[in-house]
Amino acid sequence: MSDLDPLDPLQIAEEWRTQGRSVAIATVIDTWGSAPRAAGSHLVIDENGNFEGSVSGGCVEGAVIAEAQEVIGSGEPKMLEFGVADETAWRVGLSCGGTIRVYVERLG
Fold first, then answer.
1. Alpha-carbon distance 102 to 31, whole Å?
2. Where is the XdhC- CoxI domain positioned along the sequence (predicted)?
3. Does residue 3 sit within a domain?
4. Which of 21, 31, 56, 71 could serve as 46's disulfide partner, Cβ 3.0–4.6 Å?
5. What is the pLDDT along the chain (108 residues), one digit of tens a residue?
6. Domain count across the chain
7. Distance (Å, rounded) from C-alpha 70 to C-alpha 73?
8. Radius of gyration of the chain (CA)
9. Residue 69: CA atoms inside 13 Å, Cβ hemisphere, count?
10. DSSP line for 12-81
């Protein structure tokens, strides 16, 4: 039986790393309006697109996962911003309002 908390993406990221997986972490830096996750929320992603955690309750996860896979490959961190005024708002699902900034970096 594992001692991992299935709800703790940071523990899961560490476990994935010990398994030899390449991992990125996405962290909510700040939000405004109706963003459903608080600053400090995490989403961890491996090179195959497996993920645990959440940065937006489903609104931007797909876009963040795609960007995280690029970060894993390049090693270069990215600051992502999504919002109603952003041209990606309708594509990623923030049409309800608000903005969210997410920092994505490779672990290890």
1. 9
2. 16-83
3. no
4. 21
5. 345 556 799 999 999 999 999 999 999 999 887 767 889 999 999 999 999 999 988 878 999 999 999 999 999 999 999 876 555 545 555 455 678 899 999 998
6. 1
7. 5
8. 14
9. 10
10. HHHHHHHTT--EEEEEEEEEESS-SS-TT-EEEEETTS-EEE-SSTTSSHHHHHHHHHHHHHH---EEEE
Task: Count Cβ atoms below 10 Å from residue 2 Cβ, excluding itself.
Answer: 7
Residue 19 is classified by DSSP as T
Task: Write down the number of H helices and E strands in the chain.
Answer: 3, 5
Instruction: Supply angle C-alpha 103, 98, 55, rounded to 5.
Output: 35
Note down the domain range covering 95. Answer: 9-107
Judge whether 4 lies within some domain: no
Q: Which two tokens stand for residue 69?
A: 């896979």
Q: Is residue 2 part of a domain?
A: no
Q: How long a stretch of residues is the chain?
A: 108
Residue 24 included in any domain = yes
